[in-house]
């Protein structure tokens, strides 16, 4: 477990997002234990900042283009809270493995994570905009 965590890229999260996402992870631990625990671990290791210098960082509401490193396919999504999620509009909830993996990453960073079916997936952030 230690080796795995040291390989994770450094992430930055705005103070407001950190506070709200911590509450969300705690309140959904019973409903979605795996992804809520993953999100909570990501929040624990994040550097919390004052939100102004995060223009190239995936935040809540960010439009994100990422590449699935396993397939090579790129996808553009907007990272949203669960009640705003809509797969047809590419609005992906933070309470999905992909959403929890992307939060706090900067352009060019790559992360590996385990999917609910125990496969390892790797994503690279290609672009971030508001």
From TrEMBL:
Q: Does the keyword RNA-binding apply?
A: no
Annotated protein name in UniProt: Nucleoside diphosphate kinase regulator
Protein keywords: Kinase, Transferase
Pfam families in alphabetical order: GreA_GreB, Rnk_N
InterPro entries recorded = GreA/GreB_C_sf (IPR036953), Rnk_N (IPR029462), Tscrpt_elong_fac_GreA/B_C (IPR001437), Tscrpt_elong_fac_GreA/B_fam (IPR023459)
List residues of the Transcription elongation factor GreA/GreB C-terminal domain: 55-129
Which Gene Ontology BP terms does the record give? DNA-templated transcription elongation; regulation of DNA-templated transcription elongation
NCBIfam families in alphabetical order = PRK05753.1
Q: Which organism is it from?
A: Bradyrhizobium nitroreducens
GO molecular function: any one?
kinase activity
Residue stretches making up the Regulator of nucleoside diphosphate kinase N-terminal domain: 9-48
For the keyword Membrane, the answer is: no
- Origin superkingdom: Bacteria
């Amino acid at each position: 477990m230690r080796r795995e965590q040291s390989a994770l890229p450094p992430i930055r999260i705005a103070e407001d997002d950190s506070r709200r996402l911590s509450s969300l992870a705690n309140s959904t631990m019973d409903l979605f234990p795996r992804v809520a625990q993953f999100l909570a671990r990501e929040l624990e290791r994040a550097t919390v900042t004052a939100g102004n210098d995060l223009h190239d960082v995936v935040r809540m509401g960010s439009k994100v283009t990422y590449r699935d490193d396993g397939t090579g396919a790129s996808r553009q999504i907007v990272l949203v809270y669960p009640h705003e999620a809509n797969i047809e509009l590419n609005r992906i909830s933070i309470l999905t493995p992909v959403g929890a993996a992307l939060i706090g990453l900067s352009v060019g960073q790559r992360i590996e994570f385990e999917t609910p079916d125990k496969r390892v997936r790797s994503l690279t952030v290609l672009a971030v905009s508001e």
